[in-house]
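Long-time lurker. I teach an intro course on protein structure, and each term I like to show students one example going from raw sequence to a predicted 3D structure in token notation. This year I'd like something fresh instead of my usual example. Would anyone be willing to generate the tokens for the chain below so I can use it in lecture? Attribution to the forum is fine with me.
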Amino acid sequence: MKSPKQVLDIVEKSIIKVQERSYFWTHEIRYRWILEKIKFLSNGKKLTILDIGCFPYHVGKALELLGHTVYGIASYHEPVSNNNVAVVNIETEKFPYANDFFDLVLCNEVIEHLPQSPIPALREIKRVLKKNGLCMITTPNIARLVNRIKVLVGFSPMYPTDVYFENNGKGNNIYHRHNREYTLSELVKVVRGAGFKIAEEKYFISYTPFRKRVIPDTFMLVGIKFINYASMLFLNPFKDTLCVLGKKIS
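-- Reply from a regular --
Happy to contribute to a lecture. Here you go:
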């Protein structure tokens, strides 16, 4: 059986566009972490998995190569051309799947993009999960070290107000920016409030100085990234990403 690293190598080799390859390199460590976690959770079984926010179709393709049955939900502004992928507004529309259908639902780097309450989407996730099925949510940690430093020196960790002036003052597409990031305790509260039992809550590192770059970082930026990385290794709340596993118990 291929390892998560091996299937990601296959996915990378299939990418033609430079921009998409750059995105893959940026998120490769996070992809591998997610796939390793799924490997542990599956315990050798082949799962039926729903990947919400599956654009670009990197994790979904890797999971298929690992032998899982994968369905996806893409957004209207980032559609995916795949017979098993539906285009859904998860804030306002029901998922096109039966009750108790999936073993695992992934909601990776999605919840921070929602401008409205995530509760309706989480309740839909719970509906389509089998009993004892799991929902995996990963999202940036708003209290990561980089953000703490920004606030300390007087800068905002939020998206720049310049976006309000785009499109003749109408602003940019709200779904392309992070509208609400979370601390770990906040994310746990939201997932629990949607009716899940919390199976796991943790910090992890998604972005390191070792990832490939289309344009190499400057020597100074590399140094800053290594200091940040070392700090994240020693202090969990400084890490850049959160993961909460919600379990459907009823």
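Some talking points for your students: The beta strands are 48-52, 69-74, 85-87, 102-108, 129-140, 197-204, 241-247. The radius of gyration is 18 Å.
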